[in-house]
Design brief:
With 150 residues, the chain is an alpha+beta fold. It is built from four helices and nine strands; from the N terminus they run βαβαβββββαββα. It has helices at 10-15, 30-37, 85-95, 127-149; strands at residues 4-8, 16-26, 41-42, 47-51, 54-58, 61-62, 79-82, 100-109, 115-124.
């Protein structure tokens, strides 16, 4: 069994410089896992924050599982991330610097079938940085197209 990506936050790489990434587990309920397997999750506006020595993810929308009977959690509820104490201390140090934020980049199931989330320590881009990134991406695409047609 290989890694199966459920959702990616494409906007994050456009809006932020990703300095460092961490893999974290998620505390989920059973019906939420079934919704994840169906791909019914949105990472667009979510972010993570360290609170009292634990990391929580905010605004991650997991749609309720359609066949769940009794246990339907709130789609936007707080979800705890499972990280080691050493990693949390490192994150606290990095996020306390001005301009850094914890942004979820990718949600996936690993080889063992466990739901994992990749969070990045990110610094916001300015408008001119975004333009430069787009220009560089277009130039790379044109170069690859020219090499392929040659």
């Amino acid at each position: 069994m290989s890694i199966r990506v459920v959702a990616t936050n494409k906007k994050a790489r456009h809006d932020y410089f990703v300095e460092d990434t961490y893999e974290a587990g998620l505390v989920l309920k059973g019906s939420e896992v079934k919704s994840l397997r169906a791909g019914r999750v949105n990472l667009k506006d979510c972010y993570a924050r360290v609170k009292q020595g634990e990391v929580f993810i905010y605004n991650m929308h997991i749609s309720p599982y359609s066949h769940a009977t009794y246990d339907r959690p709130d789609p936007l509820r707080l979800r705890k991330l499972l990280l080691k104490k050493r990693e949390i201390r490192k994150l606290v140090g990095m996020v306390s610097e001005k301009g850094f934020a914890l942004i979820p980049l990718k949600l996936y199931f690993n080889e063992k079938g466990r739901a994992k989330i990749e969070i990045g320590v990110c610094k916001g881009k300015k408008l001119y940085d975004k333009r430069a990134t787009l220009k560089k991406k277009d130039a790379q695409r044109d170069l690859e197209r020219a090499m392929r047609d040659y």
